[in-house]
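Trying the structure run again after the queue cleared.
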Amino acid sequence: MAEGMGITVIPRLGLGTLPDSTVMAPIVNPTPWRSVSVRVRDAVAGHPAVVRMLELLDERVAVDRMTA
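Done. Tokens:
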């Protein structure tokens, strides 16, 4: 895109911060959706890093649902 023109489709969850020279335009009518699944082994389900990662994912998905 730095060469002047380009198009890509990225889920809002993976968007992050865009460069000033980049414009985001949501796709609508129909609005795309996707399903994200997470599987955690019982042996590590209580590990603080795993618990926190799942909390962060839940928080981000909740924010995306409110802004969609």
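The mean pLDDT is 82. Worth checking whether this holds up in the mutant runs.
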